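Encode chain A's predicted structure.
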Amino acid sequence: MNYRPLGSTGLSVSEISFGTWAIGGSWGQVNDAESPRGLARAMEAGVNFFDTADVYGSGHSEELLAQATKGKEDRIYIATKFCRAGDIHDPANYTEAAIRSYCEASLSRSAAGTHRPVSDSLPADRHLKRRRGI
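Encoded structure for chain A:
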């Protein structure tokens, strides 16, 4: 597997990521026994970067990632999109309080150790740094 720097974050992520939309379960049949095997195989191949969202199975993909990456938090990176569960056209969906709520919900579903704030420019990252005492 080849790895590249993720912008100026200092993180080195695999050139190939694993998108978890299909294992979330909202858009077609999924197999919760097979999904962890697919995640494990990707990690065995060197994938360390996973993409998910709060709307992928109403957070189910985040839960599956938490199970599959347990014990590997120090070498796995998860990009979680949020604010999609609300009305994407409503500015109230993007307030710091709303973002904090989405961030906390994602953390509660997923492996919190894999969430690394990468900037000070996003309210979610500032909140996560405060929460962790960083």
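The helical segments are 21-24, 34-44, 60-69, 96-109, 123-132.
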